[in-house]
Design a protein that fits this description.
The chain is mainly alpha-helical. It has eleven helices and three strands.
């Protein structure tokens, strides 16, 4: 079946290969935080307007916002080298953490994980502060507000915004609720630059080594580290509670 995305598979790593397929039964299906729901003709899922028509005359199936997020992330982040590996691994981890957030927001969490670093792209990186650049681009492109706000505030962005004198700019985007921010922080801050799984402490140590002492990123993490540790621990506790 020819579609703009290929063949559907409910896995972050396989989604990165642009595979999109539909298969029976035509019931709600959620795996790794990505879902494909049976919709009435013309009905929309999130902000996605692409409709995939299955073979055999069944009602059309629309992919979630996460599928469109893969496409955009590939366009903007894949050319950046190992950051693409990081983004793919963060998205996979976000899928693993989807049980820690409201079921209606799981696809938004995964979409935000795919999109959290698009602001590094030179195509849209106007301020050189990637959470702000990514959020502004998504907002202007009509993405759902929760996706936009998660990208804007992911992984303690407010601390770096203060170091860069951009707090007022970032404040244009409302701070999302704790469960979503915590889950995205855990996914991002336990994944290394090349996609390797790290502990939170190892990830922060890696950031502080990579950016020199005078860099705004280094200075921000001196303040942010204990706050984000609490965020990560909350997400870990929710995950443990959900699997008990």
């Amino acid at each position: 079946m020819s579609t703009p995305f290929g063949t559907w598979v409910p896995s972050a790593s396989r989604l990165a290969d642009n595979a999109l397929r539909t298969e029976p039964p035509w019931s709600d299906r959620v795996t790794s935080g990505l879902c494909c729901r049976r919709l009435a003709p013309g009905q929309r899922a999130g902000s996605v307007v692409i409709v995939i028509r299955d073979v055999g005359g069944d009602p059309p199936v629309s992919p979630t916002v996460a599928v469109e997020a893969v496409r955009l992330a590939r366009q903007l982040v894949e050319p950046l080298g190992r950051r693409w590996s990081h983004v793919q691994a963060v998205a996979a981890r976000a899928g693993e953490l989807s049980s820690t957030v409201d079921p209606d927001e799981r696809d938004v969490l995964v979409a935000s994980a795919w999109l959290h670093d698009i602001g590094y792209s030179p195509e849209i990186g106007h301020t050189r502060f990637h959470p702000l650049d990514g959020a502004r681009y998504l907002s202007a492109s009509g993405w759902p507000p929760l996706v936009v706000n998660l990208v804007a505030h992911h992984s303690g962005a407010r601390f770096e915004a203060k170091e860069r004198g951009l707090s007022a700019d970032l404040s244009a985007f409302p701070l999302p609720g704790e469960p979503m921010l915590d889950a995205l922080a855990l996914a991002d801050l336990t994944t290394g630059p090349a996609g390797e799984r790290l502990t939170y402490d190892d990830r922060i140590a890696e950031i502080l080594r990579r950016y020199p002492e005078g860099d705004p990123v280094h200075q921000a993490w001196l303040t942010a580290a204990p706050v984000l540790r609490e965020s990560v621990q909350r997400a870990q506790a929710r995950l443990a509670a959900g699997s008990a």
